[in-house]
Amino acid sequence: MASQGTQTSAENGPLQKILIAGGGAMGAGIGYIFARAYPNAQVDVMDTNEKVRIAAADHFEKWAAKDKERDEKAGKIPVDITGRLNILGGFGKAQLHYDLMIEAITENLELKKKIFSEFDLRAHDHSLFASNTSSLSITTLSTAVNPKRQGRVIGLHFFNPPRIMKLLEIVTTEATEPSAISLARDVAANLDKTPVICKDAPGFITSRLGIVLINEAIFALQEGLMSAEDIDTSMKLGYNFPMGPLALADFIGLDVVFAVTQTLYDSYQDSKYRPCMLLRKKVEAGHLGQKSGRGFFIYDK
Questions:
Q1: C-alpha distance from residue 240 to each of 153, 217, 221, 244 (Å)
Q2: Residue 284, Cβ neighbours under 10 Å: how many?
Q3: Which residue among 17, 18, 142, 231 is the one 20 to 30 A from 45 at the CA level?
Q4: pLDDT by residue (tens digit) across 196-249?
Q5: 3-state helix, strand, coil in the chain (%, to 5)
Q6: Is 193 within 8 Å of 61 (Cβ atoms)?
Q7: Is the pLDDT of residue 3 over 50?
Q8: Is the pLDDT of residue 179 over 90?
């Protein structure tokens, strides 16, 4: 807890201490954009997997080089993240009194609740607790923190890759305080994201709509109506989508798509969310999309 008489940055000024749990594609990307958007902030990205930490460090170096080149071409002073963007191997290295803490781990409710319990130990009275989940209940996650802080829990659903995608889905619970929503909007503005506000419900809006399209495209493929290439071409040219639903599923990761679809089906008990058997079989075979080199399409790793 913040000591009496001490002003906290989350309440009275820009964020100064930010913690991201999860160093994969989403967590690393989120940590990086915060380090660029908050030049005076310390940003810690935590992951227990050494390979993930190594990959995150490599991403940071490559992204920083690209952004430096782009800033210089635009006549801007490059943002220096040196010494401010840190990679931690566990919560033991984390500090106290973070202003903002975001979990960006796999779609597993119990693991996310454990992360929130760890966040609670490192919070102050005005800390913002956030989840990047694309489908799980923010309300349920909020039960893992001190009841006095449940109004500070919110969903910050970023899209992959966070450096590029402009949307930020802000998910609120019945308990979310107006000041927490205001801070989330400020975060979106500082990150140059467009915020949309959604009440807490399984899949929110973006996943609830997008997953149905992806799952239906997989059913069409399973039924032999079209090839994967033609299904994606139809949606790109017929509906002006930048990416077809099957290529998008491969990009997201078929394990993630399956988990979100299963969550929606379990939550709504509506057959329109029933995961296609072909999707299940792909996941069982380890054909997870781009990250495994094979999904609905084959990729050169």
A1: 36, 16, 20, 10
A2: 9
A3: 142
A4: 999 999 989 999 999 999 999 999 999 999 999 999 999 999 999 999 999 999
A5: 50, 15, 35
A6: no
A7: no
A8: yes
10 Å CB burial of residue 137 (0-12, 13-18, 19+) is buried
Q: The domain containing residue 119 runs over which residues? A: 9-199
Mean pLDDT (whole number) for 18-37: 96
Q: For strands 167-172 and 153-157, give the pairing.
A: antiparallel
Q: Are residues 167 and 214 in the same domain?
A: no
How many angstroms separate the Cα of 127 from the Cα of each of 22, 50, 176?
19, 28, 13
Angle between helices 228-239 and 206-222 in degrees, nearest 10: 140
| Residue at 4 is within a domain | no
Q: DSSP character for 273? A: G
Q: Tell me which amino acid residue 79 is.
A: V
* Domain count of the fold of the chain: 2
Q: Which of 168, 199, 230 is the last residue of a domain?
A: 199
- Is 149 a domain residue? yes
Which pLDDT score, from 0 to 100, does residue 7 have? 39
Q: Count H helices and E strands in the chain, helices first.
A: 11, 8
Residue 293, domain member (yes or no):
no
Structure tokens at 51: 């390979």
Domain containing residue 232: CATH number: 1.10.1040.50
Give residue 199's pLDDT: 96
Considering the domain boundaries, does residue 57 fall inside one?
yes
pLDDT confidence of 1, banded at 50, 70, 90? very low
User: Do 102 and 156 form a contact (C-beta atoms < 8 A)?
Assistant: yes
d(CA 235, CA 1): 51
Question: Sign of the C-alpha dihedral, residues 95, 17, 122, 32?
Answer: negative
